[in-house]
Amino acid sequence: MDYHPSARLLTDRNILVTGASDGIGREAAITYARHGAKVLLLGRNLQKLEAVAGEIAALGLPPASLYVLDFATATPACCQRIASEISRRYSRLDGVLHNAGLLGDIVPMDKQDPQVWQQVMRVNVDATFFLTQALLPLLLLSPGASLVFTSSSVGRQGRAGWGAYAVSKFATEGMMQVLAGEYAPEQLRINCINPGGTRTAMRASAFPQENAGKLKTPADIMPLYLYLMGDDSKGETGISFDAQPGRKPGAAE
Ligand code: NDP
């Protein structure tokens, strides 16, 4: 995406990123902070979150706050507690990037381990919903908030072997569409990003034989992540965007 926002695009915005400890989420959190946002980093590993907060502090950007939550075991009550903790420190949320995700096993359906299947659904669907429900009141206090889910090409067109992950990403697209129908876009816009093949640990475990050097980096795909969090996307809702439009799904060639 050819988008060059001002460095002040997100000034005074409070933006929460899930899975902010690594990969695309880490990059998005740092990028939002670079564009003026106060970022709330949510993840399951405090040490990794502290490292990202340290990078943000070293750049002289507004300090990040950290929230530890393991999506594999998160309950609605845990998510309500996180929302209460946030509301003690912030008057509202202007954006949430749902980015945390679990790949599970890349095996045919008849070999999917039911426990791994449930874990993928818990992380990618259930906890994402519980947290969304808990955070909605804080988002609705913003004059125009943005809620962004993370999808995948296998969440739009099923692919053999992608089992629980693909099914969970179809559910993510569905969650986005249902929510988008429930709010006026000027109040809360809700969209999905399909990052497309991006150089991260998850990608390497899905495609171990691939030449990672041919993939875009998380930094390369940030223009869409910025566009959807800032005012330039006001009014756009219910859309599933590609961070790499035209990219053919599957291994990099
Ligand atoms: P990474 O594996 O690099 O990062 C995943 C993030 O999710 C990490 O911060 C990880 O935390 C967090 N996470 C995983 N499990 C849990 C959990 N149980 N509770 C809380 N946080 C958790 O993956 P990517 O950056 O590649 O993926 C980011 C998103 O993009 C995912 O939703 C993925 O499905 C999607 N995506 C990625 C593509 C790619 O090519 N990279 C392509 C299409 C979609 P921790 O650091 O503790 O492991």
What would you say this structure looks like, in words?
The protein has helices at 23-34, 46-58, 76-89, 114-139, 163-182, 201-206, 222-229; strands at 14-18, 38-43, 65-68, 95-97, 145-150, 188-194, 240-242. The model has no long low-confidence stretch (mean pLDDT 97). The chain has 253 residues and is an alpha/beta fold. Helix 4 links the parallel strand 4 and strand 5. The structure holds NADPH dihydro-nicotinamide-adenine-dinucleotide phosphate. NADPH dihydro-nicotinamide-adenine-dinucleotide phosphate is lined by residues 19, 21-25, 43-45, 48, 70-72, 99-102, 123, 150, 152, 195, 197-198, 200-203.
- Fourth-tier CATH superfamily name of the domain at 14-110 and 132-197: NAD(P)-binding Rossmann-like Domain
**Which geometry do the CA atoms define?**
globular
Bound molecules: NADPH dihydro-nicotinamide-adenine-dinucleotide phosphate
User: Structural class given helices, strands, pairing?
Assistant: alpha/beta
CA-atom Rg in angstroms: 17 Å
Tell me the span between the first and last alpha carbons.
21 Å
Q: What is the CATH C level class of the domain at 14-110 and 132-197, in words?
A: Alpha Beta
The number of distinct helices, counting runs of at least 4 residues, comes to 7
Sheet having the most strands: 7 strands, parallel
Question: How much is the average pLDDT?
Answer: 97
In N-to-C order, the SSE pattern is: EHEHEHEHEHEHHE
Level-2 CATH architecture of the domain at 14-110 and 132-197: 3-Layer(aba) Sandwich
Instruction: Please tally the β strands and state the result.
Output: 7
CATH topology of the domain at 14-110 and 132-197: Rossmann fold
Low-confidence stretches: none
The helicity comes to 25-40%
Strand order, main sheet: write it out.
3-2-1-4-5-6-7
Give the strand content: 5-15%
